[in-house]
Each structure stands twice: as structure tokens, then as C-alpha cells.
Model the fold of this input.
Amino acid sequence: MWTGLNAATRRDSRYAVRRHYQVRPWSEYMEVHWGDRAQAYVTPVGAEEVCVVTVSSERGAKTPACETEFPRLVRRLGMAELTGHERGAVTMMQKLRHVQRGNVALVGDASGSVDAITGEGLSLGFRQAMALADALEYGELSRYEAAHRRLARRPALMGRLMLVLDGRPRLRERTIRAMAADERVFARLLAVHVGAKSEAHLAATGAMLGWQLVAA
Done:
């Protein structure tokens, strides 16, 4: 990039495929299914349609890793027809060294990104745009750099924590069991993830989760 802002300090990629199926949603909630090599995200998008996204670190896991990874999901979908075209994309955890230089500033995925597992993409981009507007109002574009770093820290941390479970089925199973045994653990982690609690809150929650893992 001619601005020199494309130097990354960290870059991890995964591959995502999105499909829409013509089938009545079986739940009003979004579901996350974990497999050994992938995750599947199921979202009701209409009275007779669901969206299924599979995400994997393996480029070849685009064909419903479903049959082997998510047999219960496959049974739910049955013989449902695809609506529209299958779409694919790369989801990336990327941190840039700088997001501002001179009179140029980067916003959204151009300024670094978090994995889709966080669900933070658009929200993070909007908050960055607001921070950039504040910096422009002050006439100090350099203020945006610090604000951007602060905004990205929490979703990047939570993304890395969640991806620790990717490819570690035993740890993932024990972690989910531990959160089911004490619903406060999940509630506290979720509060940190959405910004309702500070990152300092994470240490105490980690201790609670660790105790549950030992006891599981």
C-alpha cells in the first residue's frame, strides 16, 4: 500500500462459506455448532429460510464439513434446497502496526480485523468511525491511533480465547461442561465480550472457569 500502513504484526486466517436453505427455522435463536475441524453458525433469516455459515482453518472444509462435523445439523436441514448462491470469504485476525499516517486513516477491516467468531466486525467498524470523527473534530488525527488500539484490544483478546478451543475437542468439551455447570461463568465472559464489564473482570472469571475445569 502506498501509505505504508499495511505492515501487520499478526495475521491468522480461516475460511468461511455461507449458504441459505429453504426450511422453516427450528429456533428463534442463533446457534453455534462446534466440530473437530470447523464451526457452523445457524441464523433464522425468514419465515422459511435459515442461513448456515461454516468456518474452518482448513481451506478444503467448505463442503458441508457438515456430514461428518455436524450430523445433528444435517438432520435438521434434511433435504432443504439451497436458495441463492453459495458465497465464500476469508475471515482474518489481523493487527496492523499503524492505522494512521499523515492525513490518511484506516477504518474497519482495512485497519485490521478480528475473526468472525467474535461477531464484532460491523460493530467494531462503526465504533472506529466514531473515534475517527472525534479525532477529526479535535484536529489531531494521531488521537485516532490510540483510540483504535483501545477499541480493538477487547474483541481481539476474546477472539484469541475462543479460538484456543478450535481444534482442541477435549478442552472445548470440558470448557462447555464447566460453563453449563455454573451459568455465572458464561454470563461473566459474555459481559466482558460485549463491553459491559472491563477486561480486569476477566481474571476473576478465569479463576472461576479454572476451578470448574478442575472439578469437571
